[in-house]
């Protein structure tokens, strides 16, 4: 039962942070959402920083497996990148939420160091994956590929952030479509 409670806390916290950000996460409100006492959350996660670090780690681990599945299943870079950008779109469609690491990156000055470390790890993982899509079979892509991977990650993340701020998924769609048409994103 305790693993179930911990998982329910983490899932409710993830959804809250994706919607309201780090500063919008309250143990009191989270306890109401989960149906437990606030002290119970402190039993599993002594601080908000501990909780956020745990949810970002789990988020990264799940997402990394998903990205590997895309590489295993996709027949070409266009298909892989379409599935990649669809994940960011789907997050917006889920209550106009943001990527968990993206919203925490925007609140960089308010989150503890351990959360910042995980947010950086998230970005680097995305950049490596995009590099693998752009240069299949190359373990250490050339600098121009690494730079393009960083630019694509920043562009997709930025499109999601602006679409979130406007409450318009159509904005995200238009921007990503323009990136594809220009050849920037395969």
Describe the structure.
The protein is an all-alpha fold. It has a domain at 54-182: Tetracycline Repressor, domain 2. 77% of the residues lie in helices and 0% in strands. It contains nine helices and no strands. It has helices at residues 2-20, 27-34, 38-44, 48-73, 77-93, 100-106, 113-134, 143-166, 169-182. Helix 1 packs across helix 4 (48-73) and helix 5 runs antiparallel to helix 9. The radius of gyration is 17 Å and the shape is globular. The chain starts with a helix and ends with a helix. 31% of the residues are buried.
Please report which band the strand proportion falls in: under 5%, 5-15%, 15-25%, 25-35%, 35-45% or over 45%.
Answer: under 5%
Structural class of the helices, strands and pairings? mainly alpha
Q: What general form does the structure show? A: globular
CATH superfamily of the domain at 54-182: Tetracycline Repressor, domain 2
- The helix/strand series, from N terminus to C terminus, equals HHHHHHHHH
Tell me the number of helical segments per DSSP (H or I, 4 or more residues long).
9
Compute the average pLDDT.
94
Provide a compact summary of the structure:
The chain has 186 residues and is mainly α. It has helices spanning 2-20, 27-34, 38-44, 48-73, 77-93, 100-106, 113-134, 143-166, 169-182.
